[in-house]
Please model this.
Amino acid sequence: MTRILAVARRRLLHSIPVVAIVVLGVFALLEAAPGDAVDAYLVIGGGDAEMIQRLRQEWGLDRSFLARLGAYLTALAHLDLGWSVAFARPVSAVLFERLPNTLMMMAAAICFSFSAGTLLGIAAGARPGSLRDRILSLVSLGLYAMPSFWLGLMLLVGFAVKLAWFPLGGIESVGMGKTGLARALDIARHLVLPVLSLGLIYLALYLRLMRTGMIEAWRSDYIRTARAKGLTPRRIAFRHAARNALLPVVTMLGLQAGALLSGSVVVESVFAIPGMGRLAFEAVTQRDVPLLLGVFLISTLMVILANLFVDLLYARLDPRVAAEG
Amino acid sequence: MTALLSADDVSVAYRDGARWLQAVDRVSFALPPKARLAIMGESGSGKTTLALAIADLLPHDGIRRSGAVRWPALGGAARPGRDVGFVFQDPMSSLNPVLSVGEQIAEVAVTHLGLSWPAALDRAAELLDRVGLPRPRDRLTSFPHELSGGQRQRVALAMAITAEPKLLIADEPTSALDTLTQAQIVHLLDRLATEIGLALVLVTHDLALAANLAGTGMLMYAGRVAELGPIETMVSAPRHPYLQALVAASLDPDRPPTDRLAEIPGIPPQPGAAIPGCAFEPRCPRARSACRSRPPGWAGTPADGVDCIQFDQLAAVHR
Model:
């Protein structure tokens, strides 16, 4: 237990510079990009030179780069994420309205792809070269080769348009006044297709990793020992082989968390889900610097937390990961 | 006495592309309960394959086997882990790296003795104490990488004897250890086998270790039994030319250290090579034309004999 706490403390300390680099980097990148929020605003409404002057002053855009950076960092230190000019609301209010949808979708996608992927990987790797293994490998290769936006569109056409089993988009039915369990089920129904299009590719990846890990494990001496001990085939497969095969899959889990955030931009657009991914896209088109910084900050924190969780899980699964390693 | 184990014409071949490589070629022997047999030979002689065949641990694919392994004293088949314990050569890779020592021992007791997990862990602690690990209770939660090589091999031994089997097969149990630890493990193996009443099959390339631990010796060459008999006679009065050469090549404390060690010229035949006569013939100082043309016949009884057509003449020399 102390070993695991030590891992957690070290990882958290390492994440402080990461957050700082992300904030400064994004701030500088947006500064280097041509145009600002006022330009984006004028594209929609239009206005004269006096109005431009007034807006720049009002939004603080007339001040120097360092002055604005300093103001942003000061506000951030007070846990104030600033004001979204595009939504005319505090950034934190906009973010926390959108965050649950994305979190729900990502969590469901990770759970789905990880559990189904590892189980199918065990099934495929239990008898390498068997018919079951070949079918699963072929299907996973096909899924892995598909881009998620295309997969999302195909799922949409097949299951929402033609079969009409699932809704076309959105996160829940509007104006139905559903509450409690009925509302949860309604949201779950809306999430099925986006979660599939986000998760199926990773399911294929986990399946292949797990299968390879199982095949490698079968050749190991400790599996021969387990057989010599007369353990049941079930215990040998799950407790001895799968336990070892799981390690590379868990590593991939941390990487998936980051990739899912970028994938959610596309999938949320395809399925019209008001989440973080679409918010990032909207913030870019509106040149809404505080909002975009907020999105990046929250995303960074989510990825750091996900990787912390993965590191702890890894330390728990593999006793050879030492506290100082 | 009813034999614990009897092997009749056991043969094992491995698939290599389109060919079959004969690893073990028609080996027969019987092992009474509590007896100790040392299977000796150099790398590739088929001694480990034979041991795996006895314990029914050969891989399922790419293997062709024939002959029979019977367990008359058990009245049926031997169950791995329950009737036969197995200790492997390398204690680092033979233990599961991600499971605790306690779990790896206790799971044997849960599987074969029907114990609950807490009771099985108690039993694991007793066993660790028995194999001489200090602070056995604390060791239950240790992982293999936290132990030294000798300690790991003690854990492997504890695992193998958990269900008090009738036979313990040890495949080069000390080869991966340093000399001092080797002596401790050999001593432990000897003590446990006596205390529990285990029959022992020791696979080794070490003649001295075999003579130390076993009563019967079996020398293998190219998958065949070259010589079988009481180990003391085998070491003091070797009959097969191969064994004679091996004994001549071993270190003898009584011999002046300035002497150059004897060596056996040549190398063992390639696996899968077609050998019409005796496999040792190309290296044999006493080979004659008949050795090349026809396989040697077994000279002696099933429990004591030599696989050499010149046996009668060779025996006369020693008499």
In short: Chain A has twelve helices and two strands.
